[in-house]
Each structure stands twice: as structure tokens, then as C-alpha cells.
Amino acid sequence: MASRSTKFSLSFGLDRLTTPIGIALLVTDTEGALRALDWEDYEHRMRGLLRLHYGAVELSDRPAPTDMRTALSGYFDGDFNQLSAIAWRIAGTPFQQKVWNALAHIPAGTTMSYGALAARIDLPKAIRAVGHANGSNPISVVLPCHRLIGADGSLVKYGGGLERKRWLLRHEGVQV
Fold it and tell me: Does the global pTM surpass 0.70?
């Protein structure tokens, strides 16, 4: 008798949203919560992060909730408060989740160094670990990893490319 695999895949929906900086990929769960937001030209990276955080994942074309699409479009139209209306869920280590939740509290129009974020989560020596967690943030823009900069004010690393990071910061009124 052939054995059956006991492994199963999570099933998420995949939608696309045109933005001023490219096509955003929106990955949502069956309850309509955002699980990932990345860029079409970084789809391979996004799929890798989904595998890392969730294991086997099946993506099928499914529209994201209308209110999510409206909120994201509102953000790109300049209403930065719209991001707080988006329901999201994350998977990752407890440390990663602590960093990602802290990102959600960095206001639009401001930046913070990796060291300052490490201090904010009461782990002031974890600067590099904060950088690694930030780099594996699956929900770009909504969990605003683009607002983290180097201690000297330089733009450093962004999963969607430095030009997008620069655009997002300028869009929010940060002089870079």
C-alpha cells in the first residue's frame, strides 16, 4: 500500500495592485487578512519568504478584499493613515514578530535607525538581528520596513530595491 503524505499546504489568495512604483502583490488568507505584500519583480523572494514562514503554500488568483485595495490605493494617493485600516497576520519567530509589530508603530514621515528600533524593543544590542528580521518582513509598506535607515541617516537595504525605498520615504515627506 502506498503511503500518504501527512503534509498539507496553506492556501492563500494572490492579487495584484497597480501602484506608482510597480505592481504590488497582495497575498491574503481565507479571512481576508494580508499575509504578504511584495513587488511583482520580487515575486520569487516573496514566495521564498512565504515558504520560510508558512511551509508549503499554494497561491491562487483571488481578489484581495475591496477595503484593503482601497486603503492601499489611499496610501499611495497620500492618505497615510489608511494603512492602519488593513488587517494583517504574520508568522515568524517571536523575535521577528516583535520587530515587525514595532515597525507598525513608526509613524509615516519619520525614520528610525536599526539601533533605535532595537532599543525600542528593549534589546539594544540586537541591531544586526533587527536588520535580519526587517529584511524578512513579508508585509512591505503596511509594516513599514522602509522607514528603517542606517545610524548615519543612509538608506540601507530594502527588499523591494533602494529606489522604491527612496520613493516611499519621499512620498511620506522624508527628505532623502
Answer: yes
Would you say 100 and 128 are in contact if contact means Cβ atoms under 8 Å apart?
Answer: no
Distances (CA, A) of 165 to 59, 90, 95, 116, 160: 26, 22, 24, 19, 7
Label residue 176 by pLDDT band (50, 70, 90).
confident
Query: Which grid coordinates belong to 92?
Result: 515568524
Beta-carbon count within 10 A of 63 CB: 14
23 among known catalytic residues: no
Residue of 102, 103, 145, 149 with catalytic role: 145
Task: Identify the pLDDT of residue 124.
Answer: 96
